[in-house]
Write a structure and sequence with these properties.
The chain has 99 residues and is mainly α. It has four helices and no strands.
């Protein structure tokens, strides 16, 4: 079974759950919730996937010259770029739709 089909089945099974008998959380309960990995990076443990990519030789040499952990450093730079791209642009005017 493909990964996509498996994910779709998992989503379908969750959508069928009847949550009507679960009471809403009180303000006290909400106040006791712990921060998730989205707000507390120490709690985040991403799943790693092995890939093969081509990287410019000088870029690879730069990170390898920093010593052990160069793959982690490259991943960190990629993550920062991803977060910059996906972060909301607060305070910026929307110039995409000109009337």
């Amino acid at each position: 079974m493909s990964m996509k089909k498996r994910e779709d089945k998992q989503i379908e099974s969750v959508e069928k759950i009847d949550f009507s008998d679960i009471p809403e959380m009180t303000d006290e309960q909400l106040a006791q919730l712990q921060l998730s990995h989205l707000r507390n990076p120490e709690n985040y443990r991403p799943i790693k996937k092995k890939i093969s990519i081509y990287v410019d030789a000088d870029v690879l040499d730069h990170y390898k010259s920093k010593g052990k952990g160069y793959q982690t450093k490259i991943n960190r730079v990629l993550r920062q770029g991803m977060l910059r791209e996906t972060a909301p642009s607060y305070g910026k005017k929307d110039t995409s739709s000109k009337s």
